[in-house]
Amino acid sequence: MTITIVGSGKVGAAVALNCGLRELDDILLLDVIEGLPQGEAMDINHQLSELGLDSQIKGSNSYEEMKNSNFIVLVAGMGRKPGMTRMDLLNKNASIVKDVATQISKHANNAILVVVTNPLDPMTYLALKTTKFNKNKVIGMGGMLDLSRFKSYIHDASGCSRASIQAMVISEHGENMLPLTRFSSIGGIPISEFLSKEKTQEIFDQTKKVAAEVIALKGATVYAPGNAVATMIESMIRNKKEVIPVSAYLDGEYGISDLCIGVPVVLGSNGIEKIIELELNEYERKTFDLGVTSVREAINLINQK
């Protein structure tokens, strides 16, 4: 069993490190830049060795080495720059994702594919259509990352332990993401018992815009995405069946078809084992539908190329 990460920049390396720290499997870092994946592999192996952890990291520039991988993480592509939206990356990254997905279907057609490249939901759809994998085996990372940010703000506002916080974020991984305050809790108690409506709205807004703030300050988001992917892979490798928000292909769920967008799912050894349909109120449904419209417009633009 092997985890292959295509793209060995900061996020790809963070994914490799987080998977290695959890000893999920041996890991292959792939990149077209000669020396980069090999150097990252050496650096991570040195840390894992000192910690006594036995996941082995290898670097390569050859797609052929992903053969028989059980999990592929697709991180390759241009990252967001300060001032850019995720959708600004659409044309730049569509061709990269299509090329990489073609290589994945050629060399590792039994793998589960986790997509990280932005804009996340259209790229997940493109990867699914290019590989022709089953819909349960192509999964976008976005919601898990948005969730980590939402939980951080709930912690800051409430002062309660992070371990007690349960939260949910759905819809587009982008301008129309939907932090579900109504479905979020602290120790099983609704967050409305801890926070005022004004404070809840504030953290709702902060969650939606914080990625742009981090990018403006340091150039990229790195550690939280690396952890988010590792959490998803761990749930599948260890068949934990965690409920995690991911970008999933909808085939009638939420009244939507032929589209990938963020929804809560059960992640187990077969990938997406169940899509959970929530009863959304009028405001939540309106925001979710805005996300659907945005993603569908992006997919249409890709299809016109």
Describe this entry's structure for a reader.
With 305 residues, the chain is an alpha/beta fold. The protein folds into 2 domains: 2-141, NAD(P)-binding Rossmann-like Domain (Rossmann fold, 3-Layer(aba) Sandwich); 143-304, L-2-Hydroxyisocaproate Dehydrogenase, Chain A, domain 2. The protein is built from 8 helices and 14 strands. It has helices spanning 10-21, 36-51, 90-107, 120-131, 142-158, 197-218, 223-237, 282-304, and strands at residues 2-6, 26-30, 57-60, 71-74, 112-115, 138-140, 165-166, 169-171, 177-179, 185-186, 189-190, 242-251, 257-268, 271-275. Strands 3-2-1-4-5-6 form a 6-stranded parallel β-sheet, sandwiched between helices. A 3-stranded antiparallel β-sheet has the order 7-10-11, covered by helices on one side. It has a 3-stranded antiparallel β-sheet with strand order 12-13-14. The chain is globular, with a radius of gyration of 18 Å. The protein starts with a strand and ends with a helix. The mean pLDDT is 94.
Task: Present the secondary structure layout.
Layout (H helix, E strand, L loop, with lengths): L1 E5 L3 H12 L4 E5 L5 H16 L5 E4 L10 E4 L15 H18 L4 E4 L4 H12 L6 E3 L1 H17 L6 E2 L2 E3 L5 E3 L5 E2 L2 E2 L6 H22 L4 H15 L4 E10 L5 E12 L2 E5 L6 H23 L1
Parallel strand pairs: 1-2, 1-4, 2-3, 4-5, 5-6
Antiparallel strand pairs: 7-10, 8-9, 10-11, 12-13, 13-14
